[in-house]
Amino acid sequence: MGHYVIRVKGTLSRDLTDAFPSMTADTEPPQTVLHGYLDDQAALAGILNHLDMLGISIVEVLQVPPPANEH
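RE: above sequence
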């Protein structure tokens, strides 16, 4: 489906970021940025629902071109 960037409030622990194996996590205090390729809308919805269930505030969700090294 595409490469996504999901920005959330706060710094997520390694245990939390490991719950999203299809995403890479970068800490940019006071936020965490998850990014990676998702196969379909259901995969995106699953991650967003999981974050919501954990009470994590989602700041931004963007579909972006893949990084140059993924071509």
